[in-house]
Design brief:
By secondary structure, the protein is mainly beta. It is built from one helix and 16 strands. A hairpin with a 5-residue loop joins β11 and β12.
């Protein structure tokens, strides 16, 4: 009987475990007048959690106005979920030499013969948020696939076979993130 109770209790533990408030992504420590690591990469829908270890106040503030943590210090944390592709530069408004960036790649799924779905956001653009998406065949020039789009994804299945690079960025009003890390797909 004790063994059954123990097995039952062990099986319940995962069910009762707390669910994290933010999807796993990356952690950045704010200490010694620096963001560490200064550059992180997270997937669409994942979060970055900044932990402010210094007793001196700091912020994490997007260079393009996408977020602002407000003043934090002494063990406080700030989390932001990244729902769209791009490279998002940020700084501390109090100590402007403190700089960092968050890279969010777009995702691809599909096959060389049927094409690929490119996904650059987890939600449709609203409130002035749009997305730009570009493709490039080989080492050719970048060509716009979508500009000022509020859509979250599109199909890439060009008539010309080859290796394509794809990238995306997020636009809010006139402010633009940097381009996302480049993804590569092959079309046959």
């Amino acid at each position: 009987m004790k063994l059954r109770a123990l097995v039952f209790a062990v099986l319940l533990v995962p069910v009762l475990a707390p669910v994290p408030a933010h999807a796993a992504g990356a952690s950045v420590t704010v200490a010694d007048m620096a963001f560490s690591p200064a550059t992180v990469t997270v997937g669409l829908g994942q979060s970055v959690i900044w932990t402010f270890e210094d007793p001196v106040a700091h912020t994490t503030t997007s260079d393009q106005g996408f977020w602002d943590s407000g003043t934090k210090a002494g063990g406080a944390t700030y989390a932001r979920t990244f729902t769209s592709a791009g490279t998002f530069a940020y700084h501390c408004t109090i100590h402007t030499m403190m700089r960092g960036s968050v890279k969010v790649p777009l995702t691809t799924s599909g096959t060389p013969s049927k094409g690929y779905q490119l996904t650059w956001a987890t939600a449709k653009g609203t409130g002035g948020i749009t997305y730009d998406v570009q493709t490039r065949l080989g080492s050719g020039r970048w060509v716009s696939l979508k500009a000022g789009s509020t859509a979250t994804h599109a199909k890439l299945n060009p008539a010309k076979a080859g290796k394509y690079s794809v990238r995306a960025r997020t636009v809010k009003g006139g402010a633009k993130s940097g381009w996302s890390p480049t993804a590569t797909v092959t079309i046959s």
